Amino acid sequence: AHPRERTPAQVAAIVRRARITPPARAAALAVFTRLAAAEAEAHGKPVSRIHLHEVGAVDAIVDVVGVVTALEALGVGTLCGSVLPLGTGTVRAAHGELPLPAPAAALLLRGLPVRGVPVDGETVTPTGAALLATLGRSFGPMPAMVVETLGVGAGRHDRPGIANLTRLFVGRPAPAAGATAETGEVLVEANIDDMAPELYDHALERLFEAGALDAFVTPIVMKKGRPAHTLSVLVERAKLEPVLTALFRETTSIGCRLLAVEKRALERVSVEVSTPWGPVPVKLSRLGGEVFGRRPEYDACRRLARAAGVPLRAVIEAATMAAAKIGATGQARARGRGRR
User: Phi/psi class of residue 307: alpha, beta or left (left: φ > 0; alpha: ψ in -120 to 50)?
Assistant: First the structure.
């Protein structure tokens, strides 16, 4: 066969040998499988008896593998495209002059929105049609999104009156009307059964540095009686990515669960109370006009206990007693004078 011609099996073998991730390899193979099916239908032959001409060349393989690898590197979860523009005329291929869009491209475009444009030439190639038909999830106007980055690629074939450009907008879905972007909290959980216990302390420290609101470890028993731990991390959605990075860098976990959580909490206010050894911040937990909890700050109590050489428990008890005199407003309650 001509160097630009390969069977679908030969193309698949090249893709399987490529040094790319398994998800990218699977996506590239899916594109070529769809492309081969369209070529087979256009020729009226089974896939096993066709040769891929232009679409089997090295540049076409590089195009497909490059696109799926780039989408993975950019973290694109959903690919949306515009309505596809179709030019007019013919194109010279291995089988001679073919009407546009080329037969395989036309078959791949079934089910996709298209529009005619006053351009004499090919505007949607079979490779491009296969990529969009396989990877695209929707077509039409750009969906509401918060654009994070933009890429522009220019071809070498200049046509008068039209820019030979492809633009890629990468972003995240825009919040619904009236909503605030990146709000709410997420509970991240990972079951780990192959990590040394002494590493958890360091991992928790790094998770808090990355923005975790809370993090803790729970002993569990997994299947076949294996002892393990569940690492749980509560984080604001806006800080989720740094926390996930810290989790995967500092633990042996290869995956985790993400659970959106709804939290109910008492109102908290910080006040300062006096003790015989110095001031101590205290957190008050309250609901309406009633205080439900008074908790002295542990680190402050420990510093005072060490400095004064007294038991830590004594400092905590003194701060707790002083906090008991504070009302829901954070002000010390006035003592009644009684009758004289």
Answer: alpha
